[in-house]
């Protein structure tokens, strides 16, 4: 047998159908109230003067980007850089972000050395 549950939101002030749940806080206590769209607008209008004069201390400012976990290749590269840095007298922590100058020095040390080319004698024509 199947059941169907219907949830009806009722305005907490006047008993009409609620259109939204409005969260707010006062004196360190957070509240939620279910209100019709008209009553929610009235609440916002009443608080607008106080909000305009207030300092914002929290709430939705910006979203924090989640960073992806490093891949196996990135972990191996970091391990190689740390080993190289310790062998070359760089002060570096066992964990955390590797300073840019250490990475740059590591990359520079890994560049293949340019081998001097052998000069071949050019043949001169006609003499």
TrEMBL record:
Keywords assigned by UniProt, alphabetized: DNA-binding
Residue ranges, compositional bias (Basic residues): 116-127
Domain (Lsr2 dimerization): residue spans on this chain: 1-58
Keyword Chloroplast set for record: no
Keyword DNA-binding: yes
Domain (Lsr2 DNA-binding) ranges: 74-108
Chain segments carrying region Disordered: 107-127
Molecular function GO terms recorded: acyltransferase activity; DNA binding
Protein name: Lsr2 family protein
Organism the protein comes from: Amycolatopsis dendrobii
């Amino acid at each position: 047998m199947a059941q169907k549950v219907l949830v009806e939101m009722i305005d907490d002030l006047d008993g009409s159908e609620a259109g939204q749940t409005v969260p707010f806080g006062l004196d360190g206590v957070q509240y939620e109230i279910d209100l019709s769209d008209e009553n929610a607008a009235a609440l916002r209008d009443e608080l607008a003067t106080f909000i305009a004069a207030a300092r914002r201390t929290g709430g939705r400012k910006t979203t924090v980007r989640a960073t992806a976990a490093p891949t196996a290749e990135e972990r191996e590269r970091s391990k190689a850089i740390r080993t190289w840095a310790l062998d070359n007298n760089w002060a570096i922590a066992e964990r955390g972000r590797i300073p840019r100058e250490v990475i740059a020095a590591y990359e520079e040390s890994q560049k293949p050395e340019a081998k001097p080319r052998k000069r071949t004698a050019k043949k001169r024509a006609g003499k």
